Protein 1
Amino acid sequence: MKNPKTVEQAYQIAKEAYAEFGVDTDEAIKKMEEVNISLHCWQADDVGGFETPDSELSGGGIQVTGNYPGKARTIEQLRADIEKVMSLLPGKQRLNLHAIYGDFQGEKVDRDQIEIKHFQSWVDWAKKLGIGIDFNPTCFSHPYADDGFTLSSKNEKHRKFWIEHVKRTREIAAEIGKQLGKPSVNNIWIPDGSKDIPVDRAAHRALLKESLDEIFKTEFPKEYLRDSLESKLFGIGSESMVVGSHEFYTGYAVRNNKLICIDSGHFHPTEQIGDKVSSLLLFVDELLLHISRGVRWDSDHVVIFNDEVKLIAEEIVRANALKRIYVGLDFFDGSMNRIGAYVVGTRATQLAFLFALLEPTEKLREYEENGQYFERLALLELLKTKPFGAVYDYYCLINDVPVGEDYITVIENYEKEVLSKRS
Ligand SMILES: C[C@H](O)[C@H](O)[C@@H](O)C(=O)CO
Ligand SMILES: [Mn+2]
């Protein structure tokens, strides 16, 4: 176990190193309070949900691979897992819930029938923990989504069914926000798309617009509900067209004052997601992030502290926009200890924000304005070798959570004592 004295000493050295650049490490740690990460419930059970005891992800252009033992099979198990994850993370998190994770008590409740009563036990649980809850309609793993279309379906019966589902998720999210005293972000992502070259993109996009107009007819107070729209470039089985493209939702969100959700796994691999932040923030009030890691055709690998995530955090901090950003995660990996995956991914995201908060941005801007480009590049490079790990360790220490590799043993023990005993 890490010796707290050593952690403090390392922090003092780091504090001095950053002070040489005019950066106050205490202030950076304080600012981390504004980085309130929404933990996606679906990493704990491979996006199965609780509609039936054996619910599994199907379709939707997304896929979970791996069969590592210990996935959560009940609400109680999922809550225990999330609480375990939270006990290993500094700062305060939120929970991001999908509509298929209701407390249905063995009753068959179709998606167009869900109500707040199915989520009340989640709200009560969140109240106890003092956390907020975000929400999502689930427009996949359902027979009415099997043909690849939901809100943009040409089948009127199916389209109406999904419109009703999404309307209900907005009502539920608004009630969650009201009861918890923190707005709930209801993020709409639909899988609609086409494997091969479609000829009627226009009709599907017109239908999606019509469906959204109908869904958003009802207004809810902003302090209870935020509406967000998530685009995607392609999915598995929707390689040739996704109806809800980036252009579609950017246009819709700007015109209708909605949040845009940027999922970092949903763009072309050479696109820099961080580059989008300063543009979008000029035209929408707030953004939702789904921090993920795309690897080849998969958009949902466990987040690591890579250049992609670093740039996203840097651009948000440089734009002084932490208060306008909701940070969520979106990855699902069934090939490793799922609790470990959460902690690695969330800590990596926190590390990216802390790294950004430790940047001497004013100095870098000064170099840039003077045309001192070598100096700008040199400083950016030097920052990569500064002791930000010691600052993160100290952040963990003062939050009373395991420092550094200490969390690995805790998770191994949880696996031995809890996860391995699940059937
Ligand atoms: C389960 C989520 O809704 C889903 O991952 C969505 O956010 C997405 O990113 C689909 O690729
Ligand atoms: Mn996503």
Protein 2
Amino acid sequence: MTGAFLTETFGGRDAAVTLTRPTGAVRMVTLFRERALELDCGASVRNVRVAFRTWGELNAAGDNAVLIMHALTGDPHADSWWRPLHGPSRALDPQERFLVCANVIGGCAGSSTPAELGGHRLGIFDMARVQGELLSHLGVSRFDVVGGSMGGMLTLACLKLFPGQLKRAVVIAAPQRQSAWAHGWNVAARAALALDPARGLEVARMFAMLSYRSPLSLELAQSGPSPLGNGERAITTYLTHHGAKLRRRFTPESYACLTQAMDDFEIDDLTLRTNRVLTLVVGISSDELYPAEEVRRLAHKLGESTYYELTSVDGHDAFLIDTQALGAQVGRFLRLGDDAC
Ligand SMILES: CC(=O)SCCNC(=O)CCNC(=O)[C@H](O)C(C)(C)COP(=O)(O)OP(=O)(O)OC[C@H]1O[C@@H](n2cnc3c(N)ncnc32)[C@H](O)[C@@H]1OP(=O)(O)O
Ligand SMILES: N[C@@H](CCO)C(=O)O
């Protein structure tokens, strides 16, 4: 990774976490200064900081924007974590579109952290409201929205919150609500955090990684001895590596807040049935977390939707890994003529 880096310490004596993250081109804005943001939990907050990046130019009508929603541990650097989809002639093309990607509130990549927002329970709809406010602040009148996993939930929330401003939506590997299976992984993760915030975050990432891959992908890539040559099995050092890596770039506080928001999320049947926004719903054939069948059921309930199934062995995270066919589908969909929207 190139560019400037910022090192910050979050949390108290027992849960101090030092993060080093890139800051290149990230912009900050404070929203809800005069009018408060009313949270779904009933509390209201002011002075909400949003860290975001943009690429390309907003046109005079303010209607060529694409809002990119990141997943659980993502950040505003969509050109990094979605590099194969981002760039000239790709699905998210800054030469044609004004691209915006913002860290969700409650995250730890520059936007207001849970503690800065008073420790109130944050919801996916609260996060989506803030992203909508950011677009208004930037002068956007109409937009497309794209997101995978938690980003897909945020995209579904936009269908309910901004139906008149949305042109197209792409919902990837996301459910109508968390199944007991998906919720259960997060319950176990938060239990690990409660025992020991920093070590618990590593352990939470270890079992989350299992849910983000498929049995076959792990068998193919991680079934032998570790490439580290330390006598361990590959899967052991693989999970240890990913646990330690998340601990260096994320906070237990944000992990608990965002997984709780995912567990609380639900998009109602009426919103789905009455949707008039052109929507592409993508399921992943090997997704263990949100099985393709579950995502297909969501698509069948959703008005104006098309379902596409990405065939991949890579499991839930295939939307970040197996990007060639996905990029082609998303690019084609986002280029559907505006007169169709
Ligand atoms: C969507 C958003 O908004 S952002 C969030 C996306 N980013 C993440 O999820 C961050 C975590 N990273 C990942 O999950 C993955 O790296 C992805 C999804 C980005 C890419 O997936 P893949 O290419 O299949 O990577 P894979 O799962 O093999 O992991 C690669 C890493 O594991 C390491 N690794 C692989 N096998 C082993 C092993 N047996 N032992 C130790 N380390 C291993 C690699 O060296 C590499 O390390 P690095 O990331 O520090 O360079
Ligand atoms: N791998 C993703 C979560 C699942 O989509 C992330 O770390 O944000």
